[in-house]
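Tutorial, part two.
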Amino acid sequence: MDAIPSTGDHHTILIRIDQLARLFNSLDPTPFRERDLDEDAERFIVEWAEEAPKDRPIVIVVQLPPGEADPAVTRVVQDAMRYNFESRSKRARRELRQLLREGRRALFIGIPILACSLIASQFVTNLSGAGAFSRVASESLVIFGWVANWRALEIFLYDWWPIVRRGRLYRRLAAAEVRVLSV
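Running the prediction step on this input gives:
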């Protein structure tokens, strides 16, 4: 499997295989159109697509041995590629929704804990004065409140970006032109 240099108007990913069956997951019993791609083939395509310039469409060229490429095979490969990457895109959207739901739950739990920690911190300071123990206890309560929000902040600041990027890439691959050639 190779990637050939991009031309000015598109980024080409070249896949050379010795038989069509190698393109698909051998453990997947569904018909070709709905079959998952082989893990290695999918990883190869995704890795090369990640290198593609964002402003150029992707073209996937599948090279088969002489006699294996005909219009029916071309249609099967095109449908399978589109189906596979549309499925991955939908999975990324579900994963994002689930992650954001988890973030909302963490925030729903974390914000009241932070509020109680801030109130308790102020209460400790008011009761004990400005002593060292009072200050340590007060600051510990504030830190505890922020730590209780750690997961929510991590989700809303960082964790969702890779999923969105992956979903965009899968949508680009689902929309990619797929050509099947006989060599």
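The chain has a mean pLDDT of 88. In part three we will examine how such features are distributed along the chain.
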